């Protein structure tokens, strides 16, 4: 018997990763684990593996708009998660989509570099995200290297980057996984001056898709109605567990295990 879904639906605008560690596959798996339904809209195609990205192609904006508008016209959207955009034109495309979804929380994972260091967009993409996309977003989830690019502070601390970025966005979660301290410090900043710090044990190795997993999980928790600070904690806890249980199928980074092998 068919039943109407009671699961919140999250529109995901992200790139496709053929190795399945990041991008839309990460979004889908992480959202399923939260009890949500993912509606994936492809923004870009990539050539990458667990080592690095070697090429990418941003889709024509009309194709992206057609995908998103078909979904929006058919199902209720509880939240929107952004991943790889890859071009300034795609930033403007997202803004056009969001005009149809006023009130839906927008979670922005500013994907500017692959885990292996390869660029996933020109430098002006970060500027366009900060100036035009952040003002309509609920929260952005950059790691510290991404926050430095967005803030144009090559050696800035998390606090310094947050000070530069908060005039553009209401909430900012700067993750600390790229450091070398024994503990990972993830810092949530809000424009009203409040700040929360979340720490966890650093795990060995490097991971492909950790940022996508975190942002998608956060989008799912907000879609479920969880408060922001609690949703951040839930997303960080879940992401840490996926990294703890990560697998190494290739020659490069570990891939987070977002779902159990036995779903029964």
Mean of the pLDDT scores?
Answer: 92
Could you name the ranges where pLDDT drops below 50 across 5 or more consecutive residues?
A: none
- Beta-strand share of residues: 15-25%
- Global Rg: 17 Å
Question: What does the model show?
Answer:
- This protein is α/β, with parallel strands linked by helices and 264 residues long.
- It has helices at 23-34, 61-74, 88-98, 123-133, 144-151, 158-165, 210-223, 228-244, and strands spanning 9-16, 37-48, 53-58, 79-82, 106-108, 139-140, 171-174, 183-190, 195-201.
- The longest helix is centred in the last third of the chain and has 17 residues, at 228-244.
- It is globular.
- The relative contact order is 0.16.
Give me a quick take on this structure:
The protein is α/β, with parallel strands linked by helices and 264 residues long. The protein has helices at residues 23-34, 61-74, 88-98, 123-133, 144-151, 158-165, 210-223, 228-244, and strands at 9-16, 37-48, 53-58, 79-82, 106-108, 139-140, 171-174, 183-190, 195-201. Helix 7 packs antiparallel against helix 8 (228-244).
Q: What is the element layout, followed by pairings?
A:
Layout: E1 9-16, H1 23-34, E2 37-48, E3 53-58, H2 61-74, E4 79-82, H3 88-98, E5 106-108, H4 123-133, E6 139-140, H5 144-151, H6 158-165, E7 171-174, E8 183-190, E9 195-201, H7 210-223, H8 228-244
Parallel strand pairs: 1-2, 1-4, 4-5, 5-6, 6-7
Antiparallel strand pairs: 2-3, 7-8, 8-9
Key traits:
single chain; 264 residues; alpha/beta; 9-stranded mixed β-sheet; 8 helices; globular
